[in-house]
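Protocol step 4 of 6: structure prediction from sequence.
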Amino acid sequence: MAGAADTYNDIDLAWLMRLRTVVARLGEMDCARWWNSQGQLGRQGVNVLRRGFPRTHYFAQAKSVQMIAAARCAEIFDPPGSINLWRLPDDLEDRLDSIWEGWLDAAGDWQPFFERVASLKAADVAATLKEFELVTDAEVEAFAKVKKSSDGRSIQMPEKFDGRRRVVALLALSFSGSLPGNLVVPYARMADA
């Protein structure tokens, strides 16, 4: 069970890290080809980074691909007053950064998760997130009602982000609106914007 320091409103920060990591892996060039990383979260990335980062290579891989995904999404669609899976409010991102060291200290506990991520080859975002138990049936059902924007570059969430898990889960699920090689960026407006 997550403690108060490990959550943000009802968002479990370990869940957020896992959610981002799975979507990051699915977007790599050897999967859906949405951002320019080639198997960095796959077995190739383990082999390359394990030598220089024997204890923390999984987290180095995840952080790297998440940053690549953030940069690519910003290139495609980055409206002011909005958030996306890779750019959440500063206080949430700060909280996530603050517990990162604790995860590094317990890196072995994360190994089974990262090994599972490394074996991913599919690009079916919704099915993969469901398989990893990162989204609920209710979130998948809510996602079915989300519509792609007419510009073909973005998907706006029907709800504004108020700091709760549901919108973050919908942001992740909405990467399903992308096609291989054709990224569509899910985003949400801030509740106070």
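Step 5 (inspection) to follow. The longest strand covers residues 185-189.
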